[in-house]
């Protein structure tokens, strides 16, 4: 067990280093002069040069690389080119806001989609199953910004049940924030309904046909007991994996939803940083998404092992 | 997925297939009976064609393909012409209404099919092509190459695809070739991982060992012996990837990395107009958004049919 966790942490560190390198390579070939971009076209040449010298963007690439890697491993993301404030002060609150949205989306989507998946599996090939499978296919294949735009038009504008600008004003109570957040969270929840429902359905169908299920039924267990003790324990493993993989996407790929609802989460932060060539912010944000993604997959593997001790952690990937 | 949709295969149907082969005009009649693999492929294709989801998907897809091919020749108005009144609600002359500059939304939606249908399938094809090559090398060669490549693949999987695509497009400019290339490169590691695991299951089988003992080169074994046996998952991956490519290309043009404004591209239209939903002008956003949704669903219905049949066989 301990060896497994150590191995995984080591591999997380290696993967993060590669992530940081990929981002660095992509950003450092961005054309254009950072100082010019930040200070604007009217700033005098000397100021731009001084600004670049201060940032170190005039140094050779390799030195910039070593420097930025040093920062990554000390978890000091540096200061933003744009606002001159600490990157951590920008990305952690943004992560918090995106996280709030993601948690709400999961609260909406997980119970409903797991229930739908189980129901569909038990009524395999009947009408209800077809409806759930096809609804899931549609919901997970439509881009989130499309769902978000439709929800915005229908609920926020026509019915007036939500807000078009999802940033709650400072000091709004947790409950009061719901009115602002539920629509964007819904857009994300709809996008993930399909993945989770289909995975649950497939897992339950496999477990329903397994020998242990037949044995349990034949020895006289009630069907709800078979469901709880045998089927769900086995069937939920792939579902948990899917959910954990989605956590990373949910936080990183909400760029579209956040843009439609003008929400200032991690997605908008990254989008803004790309436009402004703000390398430290971008790098910090992407790494943060990477860390969240990898921690959630690790957690999922541990959870699966806990639910089903037969899964050998050493071989689990 | 569902057993009900698969008609039972009678032996006479299988026997009748070689005869049909001879009758097909323009198809060279062969004296040798077609190989089992060929027969299985034909059988799969027949099962796929019978699925209602497949037929429905193909129908929607063909509508969009026709719009993309004919473009301005069949649109009721010129998609770039802005002489109509601005923000007219849907009416007989403009079934989808007009946008802020008075352009016909229906015409723009029809013409907008072109960009995404030019980029997405090609991007998916290239991504699968590169992914197959990489995955083949990783799964077949194993060793240090596999270890290093797997790490890189994993790092890529942790990256939000859309964000990296956006970064790359900002770096290289947003021509449709760049978008195609970027999406293809981002799909490569995902495909490679699937192909790698399929190849891993094959590489220790007897036919590979015997090919090696015969003294065949690695390249020959990989592409002539192993590749035909992993074609199933590759075809599935290709159809699934086309769906994701449409998704990614639409999202990219929504966040501003697509074709520039006057173009009627769907994602760009949504991006241009979503802020006016609040003022009640829902149709300028809704119709291009619905167009994206129908195209993605159509492609996924096709992919899903292919996947169910391939995985059952």
Written description of the protein model:
The complex is a heterodimer of chains A (317) and B (313). By secondary structure, chain A is mainly alpha-helical. In chain A, 76% of the residues lie in helices and 0% in strands. Chain A has helices at 2-28, 34-39, 45-55, 61-73, 87-122, 127-141, 144-159, 174-208, 211-218, 223-252, 255-260, 266-275, 279-307. In chain A, helix 10 (223-252) packs antiparallel against helix 13 (279-307) and helix 12 (266-275) packs antiparallel against helix 13 (279-307). By secondary structure, chain B is mostly helical. In chain B, 70% of the residues lie in helices and 0% in strands. Chain B contains twelve helices and no strands. The interface between A and B is large, with 52 and 45 residues.
In DSSP terms (H or I, runs of 4 or more residues), the helix count of chain B works out at: 12
Rg of chain A, Å, rounded: 24 Å
- State Rg of chain B: 23 Å
- The CATH class of chain B is identified as Mainly Alpha
Most extensive protein-chain contact, per-chain counts: A-B, 52 and 45 residues
Overall residue-averaged pLDDT value of chain B: 77
Helix/strand order of chain A, N-terminal first: HHHHHHHHHHHHH
How large is the count of helical segments of chain A? 13
Distance between the termini of chain B: 11 Å
Largest sheet of chain B: none
Q: How many strands in all of chain B?
A: 0
- Total E-strand runs of chain A: 0
- N-to-C terminal Cα separation of chain A, in Å? 14 Å
- Under CATH, the topology of chain B can be stated as MetI-like fold
Instruction: Tell me, briefly, the overall form of chain A.
Output: globular
CATH architecture of chain B: Orthogonal Bundle
Tell me briefly what this model is.
Chain A is mainly α. Helices cover 76% and strands 0% of the residues of chain A.
């Amino acid at each position: 067990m301990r060896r497994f966790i150590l191995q995984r942490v080591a591999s997380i560190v290696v993967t993060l280093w590669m992530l940081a390198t990929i981002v660095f390579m992509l950003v450092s070939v961005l054309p254009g002069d950072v100082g010019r971009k930040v200070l604007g076209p009217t700033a005098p040449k000397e100021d731009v040069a001084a600004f670049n010298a201060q940032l170190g963007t005039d140094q050779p690439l390799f030195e910039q690389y070593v420097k930025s890697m040093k920062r990554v491993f000390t978890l000091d993301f540096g200061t933003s080119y744009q606002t001159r404030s600490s990157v951590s002060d920008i990305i952690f609150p943004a992560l918090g806001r995106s996280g709030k949205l993601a948690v709400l989306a999961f609260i909406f989507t997980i119970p409903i989609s797991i229930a739908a998946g189980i129901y569909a599996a038990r009524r395999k090939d009947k009408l209800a199953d077809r409806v759930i499978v096809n609804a899931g296919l549609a919901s997970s294949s439509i881009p989130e910004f499309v769902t978000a735009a439709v929800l915005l038009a229908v609920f926020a504008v026509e019915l007036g049940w939500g807000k078009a600008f999802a940033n709650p004003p400072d000091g709004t109570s947790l409950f009061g924030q719901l009115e602002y957040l539920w629509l964007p969270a819904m857009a994300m929840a709809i996008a993930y309904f399909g993945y989770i429902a289909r995975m649950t359905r497939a897992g339950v169908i496999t477990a329903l046909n397994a020998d242990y299920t037949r044995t349990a039924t034949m020895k006289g267990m009630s069907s709800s007991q078979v469901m709880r003790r045998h089927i769900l324990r086995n069937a939920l493993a792939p579902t948990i994996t899917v959910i954990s993989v989605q956590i990373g996407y949910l936080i990183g790929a909400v760029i579209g939803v956040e843009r439609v609802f003008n929400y200032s989460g991690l997605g908008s932060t990254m989008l803004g940083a790309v436009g402004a060539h703000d390398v430290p912010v971008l790098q910090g944000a992407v790494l943060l998404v990477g860390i969240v993604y990898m921690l959630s997959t690790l957690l999922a593997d541990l959870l699966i092992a806990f639910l089903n001790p037969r899964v050998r952690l050493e071989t689990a990937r | 997925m569902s057993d009900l949709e698969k008609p039972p295969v009678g032996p006479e149907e299988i026997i009748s297939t070689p005869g049909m082969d001879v009758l097909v005009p323009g198809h060279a009649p062969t004296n040798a009976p077609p190989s089992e693999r060929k027969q299985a492929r034909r059988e799969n294709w027949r099962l796929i064609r019978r699925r209602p989801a497949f037929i429905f998907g193909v129908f929607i897809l063909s509508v969009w393909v026709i719009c993309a091919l004919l473009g301005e020749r069949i649109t009721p108005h010129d998609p770039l012409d802005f002489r109509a009144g601005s923000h007219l609600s849907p009416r007989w002359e403009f079934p989808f209404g007009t946008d802020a500059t008075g352009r016909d939304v229906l015409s723009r939606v029809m013409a907008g099919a072109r960009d995404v249908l030019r980029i997405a399938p090609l991007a998916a094809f290239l991504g699968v092509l590169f992914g197959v090559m990489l995955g083949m090398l990783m799964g077949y060669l194993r060793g240090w190459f596999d270890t290093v490549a797997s790490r890189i693949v994993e790092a890529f999987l942790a990256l939000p695809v859309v964000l990296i695509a956006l970064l790359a497009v900002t770096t290289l400019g947003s021509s449709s070739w760049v978008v195609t290339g970027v999406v293809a490169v981002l799909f490569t590691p995902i495909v490679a991982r699937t192909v790698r695991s399929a190849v891993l299951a094959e590489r220790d089988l007897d036919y590979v060992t015997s090919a090696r003992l015969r003294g065949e080169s690695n390249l020959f074994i990989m592409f002539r012996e192993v590749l035909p046996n992993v074609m199933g998952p590759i075809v599935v991956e290709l159809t699934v990837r086309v769906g994701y490519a449409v998704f990614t290309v639409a999202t990219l043009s929504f966040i501003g990395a697509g074709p520039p404004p006057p173009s009627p591209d769907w994602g760009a239209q949504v991006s241009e107009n979503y802020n006016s939903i609040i003022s009640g002008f829902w149709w300028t956003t809704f119709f291009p958004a619905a167009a994206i949704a129908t195209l993605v669903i159509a492609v996924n219905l096709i992919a899903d049919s292919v996947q169910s049949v391939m995985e059952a066989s």
